[in-house]
Amino acid sequence: MAAPWEDVLCNEPAILEAASVAVDAALLEGVLMRTEREPNASDVVNYAPFTLLPSAVPSALFEQAYAVQQDFNLLVDAISQNKEFLERTLASTIKVDDFTARLFRIHMQVLEEGLAQSVFLGINRSDYMFDSGVDGTPALKQIEINTIAASFGGLTSRTAAVHGQVLKVLGKSKEASRLLPNNPSKGLALGIAKAWELYGSQSAVVMFLVEEVQRNIFDQRRVENELWNRNIRVIRKRFRDVFEKGSLDDAKRLYMDGQEVAVVYYREGYVPKNYDQQNWEARLLLERSKAVKCPDIATQLAGTKKVQQELSRPGMLEQLLPGRDEAVARIRATFAGLYSLDVGEEGDKIAARAIADPDRFVLKPQREGGGNNLYGEELKQVLEKIRDSPERTSYILMDKIKPQPARNYLLRAHSPLRVSECISELGIFGVYVRQGKEMVMNKAAGHLLRTKAIEHADGGVAAGVAVLDTPYLV
Ligand code: ADP
Ligand code: MG
Question: Sorted alphabetically, which CDD domains does this protein's record hold (predicted)?
Answer without folding.
Answer: eu-GS
